[in-house]
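Incident log, structure service

09:12 report received: a user says their structure output differs between two submissions of the same chain.
09:20 pulled the input from the user's history:
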Amino acid sequence: METFIQRIIDEKKGLDERIGKLKAFITSEKFKNLEPAMRALMEEQYFTMDHYSQILEKRLYLLNFNK
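09:34 re-ran on a clean worker, output below:
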C-alpha cells in the first residue's frame, strides 16, 4: 500500500477514535454542566471533526476506486 494512503487511513482511524470520545462526552452529565458557549463550541468541533472524517473517507474511496 502506498505510504500516503496509509497515512490517510491512520489519520482517519485516530480521528474517528477522538470523535467517539467527544461524542461520549457530549452525551454525558458533565457536558450538561458546562457553560452554553463551551457546549456550543464543543458541538461545533464534533460536527467539524465528523465532516473531516467524511472527507477522508471519500478520498480513500477515490484512491481505491481509481486503482
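09:41 both user submissions now match this output. Likely a transient worker issue. Closing.
09:42 reviewer note: The CA atoms of residues 15 and 37 lie 24 Å apart. Residues 36-65 form the longest helix (30 residues).
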